[in-house]
Design brief:
Blueprint lengths: L3 E5 L5 H10 L4 E6 L8 H5 L7 E4 L5 H11 L3 E4 L6 H6 L1 H22 L4 E7 L23 H20 L3 E6 L2 E2 L8 H13 L6 E3 L5 E2 L2 E2 H11 L7 E4 L5 E2 H11 L9 E3 L17 H7 L7 H19 L4
Parallel strand pairs: 1-2, 1-4, 2-3, 4-5, 5-6, 6-11, 7-10, 8-13
Antiparallel strand pairs: 9-12
Helix pairs in contact: 1-8, 3-5, 5-6, 7-9, 7-11, 9-11
């Protein structure tokens, strides 16, 4: 009998890559969507799988809808990728961020406990939970959390809920503490995609400048298509556990900018970049770098795409998009 998976956040970045990965393993995929008047399936269409997913309605902030959904479909696995995941927006929308990222996880876990206790649950945790660190330059499963945003705080709550339901009720739950992972379908509000989108516009004459905040912030960036395999592998283990997932390298925003302009064939990137205080956060996280020894040893996972390949992939995809939209450019 084919396995079934419910993916929340199916319309975002990770959802489509995960759905594609699981479809290739003959899973039946349910994708959770809110009742939009006009939902955007663009990311699923980009990966050519929009018609291969069964869409089910529900809302992370509405417990009744999730209880009913789990009662009806009782999936083999749930991958909770839904979130208000834009860190900057979480300062302005702290309540929404909490309702979706924290209480939404409680709703899902309660639904599993009540109606489908054999369902395996994956929680998308984040390196932003580590926040401000005074450690030896990396973060692993033993590193204490010190979140620096409402987003990071909401994810810490969800992380410990996931651990608690595993310990208190014996439910198979796993946290994937994923460091930054990007792709050609990353939302344009996130800094890597903001950079490659602007560089593509500059390349074909649709923009003149790129406005950014802190160029010195360093992150551990990988490719989303690689990271969804780690999610899958976590739920194939004998018991639930928590794993840090990243490349083990970190690079500054400035380094990503330099690569993006170079791969677009645009010299002298400094002439186009404007450092704008508007894009600086109230409290910054200066540096994050994963130590993923546990994931490599137990899951057998490691990234396949390096930093330069990621930047090149994203720049080329955005240039291609704008050339299709502006064939005369």
């Amino acid at each position: 009998m084919a396995k079934t998976a419910l993916i929340t956040g199916i319309l975002g970045q990770d959802g489509p890559y995960l759905a594609k990965f699981l479809l290739e393993k003959d899973y039946k995929i349910y994708g959770l969507v809110r009742r939009y008047s006009n939902p955007n399936f663009g990311n699923l269409e980009y990966l050519k799988i929009a018609d291969k997913v069964d869409y089910v309605e529900g809302d992370m902030a509405d417990e009744a809808s999730l209880l009913n959904l789990i009662r009806v479909i009782r999936p083999t696995e749930i991958y909770n990728l839904a979130a208000q995941s834009f860190v900057a927006a979480s300062f302005e929308q702290a309540r929404l961020t909490t309702e979706v990222n924290s209480l939404g996880v409680l709703h899902l876990l309660n639904a599993i406990k009540m109606f489908s206790p054999t369902t395996k649950f994956y929680q998308a945790s984040t390196s932003e939970m580590f926040g401000l660190q005074h450690t030896n330059g990396y973060q692993d499963e033993k590193t204490p959390f010190h979140p620096r945003s409402p987003y990071g705080i909401s994810k810490v709550y969800a992380y410990w809920l996931t651990v608690n339901f595993r310990e208190a009720y014996g439910i198979f739950t796993s946290n994937g503490v994923l460091f930054n992972h990007e792709s050609p379908i990353r939302g344009p509000q996130f800094v890597t995609r903001k950079i490659t989108d602007a560089v593509a516009k500059i390349k074909i004459g649709l923009a003149k400048n790129l406005h950014l905040g802190n160029l010195e912030a360093k992150r551990d960036w990988g490719f989303a298509g690689d990271y969804v395999e780690a999610m899958y592998l976590m739920l194939q283990q004998e018991k639930g556990d928590d794993f840090v997932v990243g490349t083990g390298e970190n690079h500054s925003v400035k380094e990503f900018v330099e690569l993006a302009f170079r791969f677009a064939g645009i010299p002298h990137w400094e002439e186009y970049v404007v450092v704008d205080p508007l894009f600086k956060r109230p409290s910054e996280v200066p540096e994050l770098r994963a130590k993923s020894d546990k994931a490599r040893k137990i899951l057998g996972w490691k990234p396949k795409t390096n930093f330069e390949e990621l930047a090149k992939m994203m720049v080329e995809a955005d240039i291609k998009r704008y050339k299709i939209l502006n064939p005369k450019s």
